[in-house]
Amino acid sequence: MTDTLNVAGLTVHYQTREGALQALREVALNVPAGQIVGIVGESGCGKSTLINALLQLMPENARIAAGSIRLQAEELVRAPPRRLRDLRGRDIAVVFQDPMTSLNPVLTIGRQMLDVQYRDRRPRAAKLALAAAMLGRVGLPDPVAKLGAYPHELSGGQRQRVAIAMAVMMRPKLLIADEPTTALDATLEVQIIELLRELQQEIGCAILFISHHLGVIAELCDRVVVMYAGEAVEEGPVHDVFLSPGHPYTARLIECDPGRMKTRVAQLPAIPGNLPDLTDPPPGCIFRARCDSATERCASHPGHVALAPGHWAACHFAAKDRA
Amino acid sequence: MSDSILKLRDVVVEFPALHGLKALLARPRQRRIRAIDGISLEVRRGETLAIVGESGSGKTTLARAINGLLPLAGGEIWFDRQPLHRQPDWRAVRRQMAMMFQDPVGSLSPRKTVRDLVLEPFAIHRQPVGEARQTAIRLLESAGLGADFLHRYPHQLSGGQARRVGVARALALNPALVLADEPTAGLDVSVQGEILNLLNRIKAEHGLTTVIITHNLNILRHVADRIAVMYLGRIVEIGPVEQIMETPRHPYTAALMSANPEPDPTSRRDRIILSGETPALTARPSGCEFHPRCPVARPDCAARIPVLETGATRAVSCHYPTYEDA
Amino acid sequence: MSQFRHSLAGRLLADPFAVLALLIIAGLVLIAAFADVVSPHDHAAMNLADRFAPPSATYWLGTDNLGRDTFSRLAQGSRIALYVALTAVSISGLIGLVLGMIAGFGPRWLDNALLFFFDTLRAYPTIILALALAALMPRGLGTVIVVVVITSFSEYGRVVRTQTLSLKNAEFILAERAMGASFLRIVFHHVLPNVLGPFFILAAMNLPVVITIEAGMSFLGIGVPPGTPSWGATLKDGFDYIRSTPWIILAGGLPLILVTLGFTFLGEALRDQLDPKLRKSR
Fold first, then answer.
1. ipTM of the predicted structure?
2. Residue B282's pLDDT is what?
3. What is the DSSP annotation of A24-58?
C-alpha cells in the first residue's frame, strides 16, 4: 500500500534582512497509510515551517528551495493552486493548537461546518445533518443546538472538539494535528487523545501529530520523527525510538523530561547551549555544538544511518553499542 | 507547629460578573463570582509549596491576591505576622515578597534594558545599589546569565533567558518569599531543568520559601515539598508531595495524577478519565462541587459540602476519600 | 531611551521612503530657518511691472498679482507653517496625552465622560468650528492655533487612552506593581515610554493636517491677517487670479503636497519600525 505522505529532501528558506534563514534542510519523513506519526521537537526545530510547507501555505518570504512532498504519490510542490485548494479541507485536514483563533468568531459553528462541505452538491439539510452527527461523534452535548452557537459561547475544550469535527468530517486521507492539546488542561488532553485515537480507527486516515510533549507522543503514535534546528534527526517506531534512541539529541530529550523520573533528583538534566544560527548553519552534524559525544568525525554530515528496518538516526555513532 | 511565614484563613476573592445596568437589576448573589471561595492554608518557612490545578481553578488569582494585586472580599492573610488584609504598607511587604509571572518576556518592561530591569527593585525601594554595573552582573550571574546580557532588550531574549532575568530581578533584594506563577510555562523541556535547578539552588543557599503555581505535574516531584490541589477556587487536597502523587485521596487528585502521559511507550496506566469539563464559576454545583464529574460520587455528595481540615499537614476535602488510614 | 533612538534611526535610514521623507522635512526646516538667505528677493517687495510673470530665471516660481516673488513668499510661508504646526501639535499633543492617560487610568465613569467629550469634538466639522471660533476671536495666528488645538487634541486623547488601557493590564505593569512600584513610577517609567510610540506616529501624520487647516483657514479669509505670506494666503491669491495666471496656485500647492507626502511617509515608516519590534517575541 502506498504511503499517505512522503517527504523527501525538503529544504525551505526564508528571506530575511540577515540573509537566507534555512528553516528546513533536507527533511525526509514518511507517513504510512493508517498510521499515526508523531513529530517531536522543541522551539525552533521547524515544525511550523513543515506544516506550512505541507499545506503549501507559506508566507511570502518563504520558498521551497528543494525537495518533494507527495500525498499518496501526488506531488504537491508546485502543484497548481486549484488542485491544492481542492485537496485542503478534504484530503488534507488540519487541527491547530489554539482553539480560540482557529474558528471564525463571527460565524456560527453550523455555518463554518457548512463551509467545509462547499464542494458537495448535496442539499443543505443533508450537510447540516452530517455536521450535527459529527458534533455528536466528537462528544459535544446537544449537537443540533450547537450548530447555532458562536465559538465564544463554547469552552476551549469544546472548541477544539469542533475543530476536530470539522477536520475529520470530509474523511481526509491525512490529518495534521499541530499541538492540538498544548493549550488544554491535562484532564482534557487525555480526552482529546482518546477521541483522536477512536476517530483514526473509524476513518482509517493517517495522522501527523506534532507535539513537544513526549508523553503524549509515546502514548498515541505508532512512529515518531525527531526534529532539531530544521533537520529530521531520527525516525522510527515509537517503541524503538523511546527505548533505544539512536541520536544523542533524542536520548537527551527523553532524559530531560521530568515526567520520566519517578524519584526526586538533586539536579534535573538539561541540554546546555543554544540553537545554532540558521542563517549560517554549521557544516556537518547540526547537533555537534551541544553534543557531549562529538568528535572530529562530526564535522561531516552523518546522513541517515540505518539502525533497523524503518529506524534511522542522523548520527555517525548511532549504530554503536546497540543490542 | 513550626514557624509559618504565610497564613491564609478563609480567603475569598470575587470578581464582578455583570456591569452597569445589568448589575443594578440583578440579584446581589448573581453580581459577583467567587474565584476563590474560602481558602485556608499555611506555608512554613523554607518550604516549597506547589499549588496545582487546571484553568478556572483560581491558582493565579490566589497568587495575585496574596501579593495584593487583587482585593480580598473576605478572610485574612498573615505574612510574617503582618496582617495583609488590613491595608498594610504594600511597598514594604513587596520588598519581602517577590513575584514571578507566567509570561517570561511579557513581564519585562519592553523599553528597558536587562540592566535596568534587574536594578529596578533597588530604584523602587530606594536601596543603595553600590556599584550599579557590578551589582547587575552579580545578579545576572547568580541566575546563570553573563554580562553580555546587560544591554539587551526583552524582545531579544529567548523564553529561558527572559525567565532567568525574572528570577534575578525577583531575588535582587533577598526576599523572604517568592511566588512563582508557572515558572516552566513556555519553556522547552531541555531548558526547564535549568530553571528548576536554579530555584532549588537558591532555595538551598538562602533558605527561601517558595510558592509555585503550576499545572505542569511532571515537575512537582523535583521542586515541591508539599502540594495543594485546587478545584473551582477551593483546596480539595493538600499534603506532602510523594503522598499526594502516589496515594491521592481525593478523586480529582487521583484523576489529575493519572492524566499525565509518560514518555514510556511500554507503560499503560489505568487512566481515570473524567466526564465533562470544569463547570463555569457562575454555575457552581451544589454540595461537593466535584460531584457531577466524580467517578465515585454517591447520592449525598450533592447535598453536603465537605470540609478541609485547616492547619494540618495532610488534609482532604471529600466525604469518601480513598486510602483511608487504617 | 537613547539606545532605542539610536537603533531606530539606523533602521529608519535603511527604508528608502523614510529617507525621502527625512530629506523633504530637512529641506523644509532649512528653508524655514534660512528663509531670508535662501530667498532671491524680498518677499514683500512689489514689482508691479512684473506681475503675473511665469517661472523664469529671475522669478523661480513666477510672481503674484502685486509682482512679489512667489518663491520668496513661499519660503517665508514655511516659517509660519512650521511655527503653527509645531506649536499646535505640541499643545494639542500635551492636552491629549494628559487627558488620554487620565481616561485610561481613571474610574470608568471618568473614562466614559472623557470619551464622550472626545467623540463630540471630533464629530464637529473642522471648518464649521473654525468659522465659529474665528467669528469670536481676533484674526491672527493665535486664533489659528486655538482652532487647530481644539479640533486635534481629541485624536491624541483617543490614541493615548487606547494605549494606556491596553498597557494598564499588561503583565509587565502587573510585575512592577508586584515589586512595589509607586503609581507615578509606573506612569512615567513604564507606561509613558510605551505610549509615546503611537503618539509620535500620530503627531507625524497630524503635522501636515495642521498645516493644511491653517492653509484652509487662510484661504477662507479667516486665518492669518492679510499680507502675511502664509501658504494658504498664496493659494487664495492664486485662486482669485487664476484667470490671469495659473502659476500662483500651482506653486502655492507645491509645498503643501511635499510636506504632506514627507510627513506621511515618515509616519508610516515610524509605524513600520515600531510595530514589528513590539510584536516580535522569541
1. 0.84
2. 76
3. EEEEEEEE-TT-EEEEE--TTSSHHHHHHHHTT--
